[in-house]
Specification:
The chain is mainly α and 482 residues long. It has helices at residues 3-25, 31-38, 47-70, 72-92, 96-124, 129-159, 164-167, 169-183, 199-222, 227-249, 263-292, 298-304, 307-326, 331-346, 355-382, 390-422, 428-456, 471-481. The two termini are 26 Å apart.
């Protein structure tokens, strides 16, 4: 395949991924408007975000495995068509309940799109410098979409109405679907000799993940030690245990557990979840602080995040060269520390805050840390994985990202709400700020946990020059994966 053709393919699947990530954050700025328009309660408003993130994260591994078995292009197109349809239906909905249900369905469609898109990138670019460069741009799309979503969401909400946060997906989805159908080749996609999808394993895992996040989201309401909370967590443990047993016994498991013998695959996935948990919570709570405390308009709120994707794009594209030259372990330690410092700066937000003093330093520092972190994590999570498991590796790392985001958003929102309620005697605005500050501290702890995991688990790699040194071990592991 010619070099230009590869980058055209990359552009198309990157747009698909951008749509997926954009929809995680684009509604953040529109939440106050959606709340008024559809009469959401304060407690249920977070489900506009969580319903999407929950099903997205819960079905990603199923989507990734389906891409391996039935063709990456086919699964990508099915997901893209469904995503476009549900976006239109959300845009015309007039019920809070219907909107949440459609957001959940939209998340399932996104779960088909995302791993299929990333696995196309992994199989289009050879492991090494060229793939690192592509993944550098991919990181910009995958993480910068969150910040761009805030900017775009603010403009659409203020000038066209909140419904256009979803209508905008329709023309883009139609155009990209047609282009993917015509341009991306289908030949030699299906490298597996079977099409046996492990539906029992998929049901157990998806059910366990979704119930876990739901239990966390409701625990502050029911009480962490209440009978129903403890009972639901017990069911989660049973489902995950049954899933592991099923995978060990299944002839064609949805997750061949031997993939976790590749140490960096395990480490990268464990690291990404707490990092994204802190990051998504930061976007959600910061956008609420800017609108409800600083009283910025939706457009001005979006513009306040503008430096973020610019700095992230510069960092992500430059870091690829250094990862190729020096390896990724040092970046997976330094990057999370910078992110943690940025979130920690927000943990002292005042009632009479100033954007340039209290918000902007984080907007400038965090994208540097994220750019240093996400590319090395994706490289570590996919290096040494055979082509016929690329969808699985993509599904794993995307699941870590989305489940981390869903859990983080739920936990940080719950912490903020609990602290706000407990300190209501200080006044409405002060209580809100107290909640935000405490939630940001929890986010710092989660991100520092990721840095510790990077020190303990991630082994040093210098792709591709050192790749040969470990080829024997990786090859033996790949044989097991086959």
């Amino acid at each position: 395949m010619q070099k230009n053709s590869r980058w055209i393919i990359f552009f198309l699947v990157a747009v698909a991924q951008f749509m997926v990530i954009l929809d995680v954050s684009i509604t953040n700025v529109a939440l106050p408007t959606i709340k008024q328009a559809l009469h959401f309660s304060t407690n249920n408003l977070q489900w506009v975000i969580t319903a999407y993130a929950l099903t997205f994260g819960g079905f990603l591994l199923l989507g990734g495995r389906a891409a391996d078995l039935f063709g990456r292009k086919r699964i990508l197109l099915i997901g893209m068509s469904s995503f476009t349809l549900f976006s239109f239906l959300i845009g015309i909905s007039n019920s809070a309940v219907v909107l949440i249900i459609l957001r959940a369905l939209q998340g399932i469609a996104a779960a088909l799109m995302s791993p299929a898109a990333l696995s196309i990138v992994l199989t289009t670019f050879k492991e090494g410098e060229e793939r690192n460069k592509a993944l550098g741009y991919w990181t910009t799309v995958a993480t910068g979409g969150s910040a761009v979503g805030l900017l775009l969401g603010g403009a659409l909400t203020q000038f066209f109405g909140w419904r256009w946060n979803f209508f905008i997906n329709v023309p883009i989805g139609i155009f990209v679907s047609i282009a993917i159908a015509r341009i991306i080749p289908s030949l030699s996609e299906k490298q597996n000799t079977h099409r046996d999808l492990d539906l029992p394993g998929a049901a157990l895992l998806t059910g366990g993940l979704i119930l876990f996040v739901f239990s966390i989201s409701q625990a502050p309401v029911w009480g962490w030690l209440s009978t129903i909370t403890i009972g639901l967590f017990a069911v989660v443990i049973i489902l995950i245990t049954a899933f592991i047993i099923n995978e060990l016994l299944s002839k064609h498991p949805i997750i061949p557990l031997t993939i976790f013998k590749i140490r960096n695959v395990t480490g990268a996935n464990l690291m990404l979840a707490p990092i994204v948990a802190g990051m998504y919570g930061m976007f959600f709570l910061t956008s609420l602080y800017i609108q409800t405390v600083l009283h910025y308009s939706p457009v001005l709120t979006g513009l306040s995040f503008l430096p973020f994707p610019i700095i992230l794009g510069i960092t992500s594209t430059r870091i690829a060269h250094f990862v190729t030259k020096y390896g990724y372990r040092r970046f997976l330690i330094a990057g999370p520390l910078l992110i943690a410092i940025g979130v920690a700066w927000l943990s002292r937000l005042p009632v009479n805050g100033n954007y340039f003093i209290n918000i902007l330093p984080t907007i400038l520092l965090m994208p540097v840390g994220i750019g240093m972190t996400f590319l090395p994590i994706i490289v570590a999570a996919t290096a040494g994985v055979p082509a016929n498991r690329s969808g699985l590796a993509s599904g794993l790392i995307n699941t870590s990202q989305q489940m981390g985001g869903a859990i983080g958003l739920t936990v940080l929102s719950s912490v903020a709400a609990s602290v706000t309620l407990a300190t209501a005697y200080t006044g409405q605005t002060q209580a809100l700020v107290n909640g935000y500050d405490r939630a940001f501290l929890v986010g710092v702890i989660l991100i520092l946990l990721a840095a510790v995991l990077g020190v303990i688990i991630i082994s040093q790699k210098r792709p591709p020059s050192n790749q040969r040194e470990s080829a024997g071990s990786l090859e033996s592991e790949n044989v097991v994966l086959q």
